Amino acid sequence: MRLYFIALQFLTIIPLPFSPRWEENDLGRSMAFFPLVGLTIGGLLAGADFLLTQYLPRPVGDLLLVALLAGVTGALHHDGLADVCDGLAARGARERFLAVMKDSRIGAVGVVGLVLGLLLKYQAILALPPEVKRQALFFFPVVARFAQVQMTVGSRRAREDGLGAACIAGAGVAHVAVAGIVTLAAAYLLFGVKGIACWAVLSLLTAGLRAWSHRRLGGVTGDVIGCASELNEIVCLLIIVGMYGKLT
Q1: pLDDT (tens digit, 9 = 90+) per residue, 47-62?
Q2: Which is it for the CA torsion 18, 28, 12, 125, positive or negative?
Q3: If you ran DSSP here, which 8-state letter would residue 53 be given?
Q4: Which residues pair with 97 in a beta bridge?
Q5: What proportion of the chain, given as a percentage, has pLDDT over 90?
Q6: What CA–CA distance (Å, rounded) separates 203 from 210?
Q7: CA angle at residue 37 from 31 to 43, to 5 degrees?
């Protein structure tokens, strides 16, 4: 469980009553538990939704769920989405793209990408039929954290420093296998065969993003991994809305 708490500490700002012991390459090894952390985040969202629906109109409650998700993750992956959008807008060579992503300032295109991403996530959660809403709140953080593992394991480093390089250093085939089993189990238990189909589509999306990153940047970075995670959350919610929207 030590690696689970390392993953929880890395992916969220949830305070722990103790400090887990870190060893070399532990961050990469902890990726096996990333989907389990996603399930933890999903449980937090589902619990918050249970409370909010009793006191607030659904549009207000769902907006608070988006804010809670951003808050509990420290907006770590939102930064990746904005940085990749800025990099795409720079339209330069690989070195220019990497330099723009590393810049702590956010550009106009990054702001637009971030706002659109948040709006899409909010509208998708709002459009979830009540019959499957809690299952979706559990599920979409899981598949997004698996996407981070899929983007990382076996990838090249686009740069030698940063969080992406730290994850790649310790992650292996066994870690992606464990993460995949947890994700598939969650998909089937929550949505049955439709959950497996949703996971398959998202895996193809992530594979495409990874191939693009290798071709464009020569590997992956923490920002690209974070961007893939955000896109997986959004697309997962949209798929669920598409599959179950007629229930409303």
Answers
A1: 999 999 999 999 999 9
A2: negative
A3: T
A4: none
A5: 58
A6: 10
A7: 165
